[in-house]
Specification:
The complex is a heterodimer. Helix content of chain A is about 40%, strand content about 15%. By secondary structure, chain A is α/β, with parallel strands linked by helices. In chain A, α2 packs parallel to α6. Chain A starts with a helix and ends in a 6-residue tail after the last helix. The longest helix of chain B is centred in the middle third of the chain and has 29 residues. The chains are: A alpha/beta, B alpha+beta. At the A-B interface, α1, β1, α3 and α4 of A face α4, α5, α8 and α9 of B. The structure holds iron/sulfur cluster.
Chain lengths: ~180, ~500
């Protein structure tokens, strides 16, 4: 059984059977992100995810980036465990009052140059939770934000597009901290 | 529920509460019902408060009935349920944080959701303004020779939700885990108050992102119960279809992720691919990968066309072709079995006491699935098994998921075969009356309870109870005596919701 599975792994899986147009687009997109990352950082891009109050929907799609359809690691884009190793903080959710300090401390623990991506509608302005006693609002109320990726949640392709836009923007020197 | 009235004889039934009865009792009646929880005649389904009222939903497993018992016109306090029945403890700590009502005799006086950072205190009660300042939290002491503490979180290493875990370990062995939650408290119930049905539905569907269908389902059913509203037959079936797709996607994701936490990433790769297939088919069928905001009071807003249905049948065929090999792989990999079998055991007695739902309860011998115990259409006519195991370890929680994937494939097929034609949504009329409704729906994680009071088409009070409330405390019990390195496995096999719990 295992041999069978390993064999199916050695043969190109999933992408083998007539890649759909969208799959090709994903590949192109991810390659572009990688190119920009190397140009800007001289190496691949490390992302640290911070859930600052999300409903967990945005995290699900962030996870999906690592499945074999998107497989962003093959382009050198990695999710890292520590903010010390991160270039990008990808922050989700309306920032809750109970998470604001943790978010700020994570930001401070991230060495420069660094960028902050606010992922999802909530991360822009608090979304439908904006008026709550327990919510501060969008991510930019707590740490400076370089890019916002819209959606509730943004599908994986949109997240990839967003990363590309971020790197382009950084290339132009629009903003780097 | 007549039985409940017999226990609390002084109580009176509330006329506008559907579908199960609600009785307003006096303190003696409340205590009498609490005692039936403590001596295990009943299971606690939920406990929530308002400015001057508390409500407790209980389930009688013997005769399959649900009832709500309330105390109204309170003056600042009420007799604690947790004093006699520990599963109510965190619910009551949260209730006090939110309403200011004091549960008399509550064994743990520390706050739970309120970290001392909100702009006000008691947001659902007599609001009190307070300058934001963090209050230090006293963790439970653990004393003894050569014990050490490991604080983890709220920001974790992976892409997961925030929460704090305080381990006390003796060498590699965990002697105590204490959870601290509430970091993602968004004040959803506060935002619900005064919201119209549309906005309230939006909030309900964002209580826990992985259960967005189940929450919209439960909220809509509760609202329809309150309003006495019927929905078109096609909508009934489409709702179940979405709910089963959500369950399928989550179980596939979980099976892969648990194995990945034992460093067996092959399983994650394959299960992750199947999960992605489900999300894509859902997107093609209903226009959203997570099927968010598709179920609404009155029906559903996305109809299934032929292409969508064909996509779902292709999906079923693909999973049926690939999944059995993965199950074999799981079952025949000794190194994987070595990590899973006997790890993180939750004893059946605790699962029963806490009324643990979902795979957590069913892997520890608790035969409870809302679709079977309190069936709602179309589950009353669908054929399915409710898998039960009693080992209570990580392995059992995986097997429950595996069996439920198989059941889910059959359910989806049955639904596609029997989907009736016709409209998918009825209008919701505003009759301006005060009505109360309640629903319990089986999400992938377990039973989700929604209780609400509507004034016309506006929400006066809505309570959403995630299954995690009765699972998180059990994780603390299950990890005891395991090594620290097995915590990710145990945690992932429970896969409790932070956002659904913190609200
Ligand atoms: S944007 Fe949507 S998916 Fe993301 S955290 Fe907010 S509600 Fe959840």
């Amino acid at each position: 059984m295992r041999r069978l599975l390993f064999e199916s792994l050695i043969r190109p899986p999933l992408t083998e059977a007539a890649p759909r147009q969208s799959d090709a687009a994903i590949e192109e997109l991810a390659t572009a992100v990688d190119r920009s990352a190397r140009r800007r950082l001289g190496r691949s891009l490390s992302i640290r995810a911070v859930d600052a109050g999300s409903c967990n929907g945005c995290e699900l799609e962030m996870h999906a980036l690592s499945n074999v359809f998107y497989d962003i690691e093959r382009f050198g884009i990695r999710f890292v465990a520590s903010p010390r190793h991160a270039d990008v903080l990808m922050v989700t959710g309306p920032v809750t009052r109970n998470m604001a300090e943790a978010l700020e401390r994570t930001y401070n623990a991230t060495p420069g140059p660094k960028w902050v991506v606010a992922l999802g509608s909530c991360a822009r302005d608090g979304g439908c939770f904006a008026d709550s006693y327990a919510v501060i609002g969008g991510v930019s109320r707590v740490v400076p934000v370089d890019l916002h990726i819209p959606g509730c949640p943004p599908p994986p392709t949109e997240i990839l597009k967003g990363l590309l836009a971020l790197l382009d923007q950084a290339d132009k020197g629009a903003r780097a901290s | 529920m007549p039985a409940l009235i017999a226990i609390a004889p002084e109580s009176r039934l509330v006329g506008h509460h559907r579908p199960w009865p609600r009785a307003v009792a006096n303190a003696a009646g409340w205590i009498a019902v609490t005692e039936t929880l403590a001596d295990r005649q009943r299971t606690l389904l939920g406990l929530w408060g308002e400015a001057d009222a508390v409500h407790m939903a209980v389930f009688d497993e013997a005769d399959g009935t649900v009832g709500v018992i309330s105390l109204e016109g309170l003056e600042g306090n009420y007799p604690s349920v947790a004093r006699r029945h520990p599963p109510a403890l965190r619910l009551e700590r949260a209730l006090r944080d939110l309403t200011g009502l004091e549960p008399q005799g509550l064994p743990d006086s520390r706050p739970w959701l309120d970290h001392g950072r909100w702009t006000l205190r008691f947001p659902l009660g007599e609001k009190a303004i307070r300058p934001a300042e963090a209050v230090p939290y006293k963790f439970l002491p653990a004393e003894g020779e050569s014990l050490h503490r490991i604080p983890v979180g709220p920001v974790h290493a992976g892409i997961i939700e925030p929460g704090h875990f305080r381990f006390t370990a003796n060498g590699e062995t965990v002697v105590r885990l204490e959870e601290r939650l509430g970091y993602v408290h968004k004040g959803i119930e506060g935002l619900m108050t005064g919201a119209d049905l549309g906005r309230a539905l939006q909030l309900a569907g964002r209580t826990s992102g992985d259960s967005t269908v189940a929450y919209a389902y439960a909220f809509s059913r509760a609202a329809e119960a309150a309003l006495g509203l019927d929905i078109p037959p096609r909508a009934v079936w489409l709702r179940a279809l979405m709910a089963e797709l959500e369950r399928l996607a989550n179980h596939l994701g979980d099976i892969g992720a648990i194995c990945n936490d034992a460093a067996f990433s092959l399983m994650l790769a394959h299960c992750g691919a199947l999960r992605e297939r489900v999300l894509r088919a859902a997107d093609a069928a209903f226009g959203h990968r997570l099927m968010r905001d598709r179920i609404v009071p009155g029906g559903v807003v996305a109809d299934l066309d032929e292409a969508g249905a064909a996509g779902l049948r292709t999906l079923l065929a693909e999973i049926r072709r690939k999944f059995p090999a993965l199950v074999d792989l799981y079952d025949n990999t000794a190194s994987l079995q070595d990590r899973m079998v006997g790890t993180g055991i939750l004893v059946p007695d605790l699962a029963r006491l806490y009324g643990a739902g979902g795979y957590v309860g069913r892997a520890s011998g608790r035969a409870f699935d809302v679709r079977r115990a309190l069936p709602y259409p179309p589950y009353d006519v669908l054929r399915f098994d409710v898998p039960i195991l009693d080992q209570g370890d990580v392995n059992a929680r995986i097997w429950i998921r595996i069996r439920e994937v198989e059941q889910g494939l059959s359910l989806i097929e049955q639904i596609l075969d029997q989907l009736p034609p016709g409209p998918t949504r009825h209008d919701v009329a505003d009759n301006g009356e005060v009505r109360e409704g309640m629903a319990v729906v089986e999400g992938f994680r377990g039973d989700i309870l929604v209780w609400l009071r509507l004034a016309g088409n506006r929400v006066d009070r809505c309570h959403l109870r995630d299954p995690s409330w009765f699972q998180w405390p059990l994780l603390e019990a299950a990890i005891e005596g395991n090594i620290v390195a097995d915590f990710p496995l145990c945690n992932k096999s429970f896969n409790c919701s932070y956002s659904g719990h913190d609200l």
